[in-house]
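Q: Hi! First time doing this. I have a protein sequence and I read that you can turn it into a structure. Is that right? Here it is:
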Amino acid sequence: MFPRDVTMYMGKWLRGVRRKPMLLRGARQTGKTSAVRLFAGKLPGFIELNMEAPREKLVFEQQLPVRDLLKSIRLSRSKTAPLEESLLFIDEIQACPSAINYLRLFYEELPELPVIASGSLLEVYLRRSGIEFPVGRVEHCFMHPLSFREYIRASQKKEMLILMDTIPLPDYAFPVIYREFVKFALSGGMPEIVQAAVEGMEIDAMGSLYSSLLISFLDDVPKYASNRTMAEVIRHCLETAPAETGSRIKFAGFGNSSYKSREVSEAMKTLQRAMLLSLIYPTGEVTPPPRPNLKKSPKLFFLDSGLLAYSLGAQWSEAGTEDLNSAFNGVLAEQCVAQALMKSNNTLQFWARDSRGSSAEVDFLVQHREKMIPVEVKSGATGRLRSLHRYIEDCPHKYAVRFSGGPVRVDLLRTPAGREYKLMSLPHFLAGDLHQYLNWFIED
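A: Yes, that's right. Below is the predicted 3D structure, encoded as structure tokens:
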């Protein structure tokens, strides 16, 4: 178990004055249970319950008053520590509707007890069962695969972390960190993979680990589906999604199938609720708040760059470690940036000019304070910026960002219409630090 960013968030939550039960959400195998154990395992009153275990589930189904419920749980585990030194962890809570209902009672009648609940497929399960989490009584926290920073921390490369905290990043540090980032992008951030990499396993030997993860996701498909036909559609979408990653997709006939738009749309939304993929919709707005156009074709992104690379048949020994842009024509670079941006912005959009005959698109839009910042991901250190120019000519500010395979730099550019603007170029591995760099960029 290695430190995760979410444990720092848990620390702030635990010290909060008006603390609510935390609901930790995320795809399977992203490390939710390990993160809670790492955070709270040393508390003398820590209790972990798994709702997929019938005996542990039964205590919630007895419908005891909430304080008697806690007494029963503590008695069964011989826990006598005061509540301020305790934490109740309810894992796989989707398997027990009664436990979900108790979250409201914990908040209202036992606010002094810290409670964390965790589960996979929560959105899917709740939608099918009709159960709702108590509104305003639960704090939601989302768990993703490891970020590059978490990977570096797990790898014990403290010097790199210190340099990455330096804004702007020194030019001399860029080549070494970028080579490490390419390795990370190709291997990915699933905890089991990162653990194997940290322990010295060569990436070429990890095929069975990737295969096992993908098979486990496919084995879960019947849990997502409302019927056998929908299970087939969901399985097809999950199997073919890697080949469509980074592209705008159409639901009808997705993945060279004969499935109809309604079927694929339902399957995709189900997989998005399971956090196995993301659909990012376009907006024509240049000022906040951006409104996504759900009638237009979305972009598709996968759960993890390493799973994506494996699914696309990456030959790691041939991919090189100098430039991520050579991997699948830049698709992997865009996937990595999307992952990092979605971790800090749970909703992400891209810009498409809303006019007939226009094909102008900017890869991502990120709201920073009162500005909508256009973000491009280029397959090289340079590249054509026609769509970015078009956006700048429409928007009220003069700032743009490009992620590429080069070091940090700021350029003063001019659009074809003669409008000057500033372009900040960042290496791909700084996508998770975008807001800190935007502060420096705009205020400098």
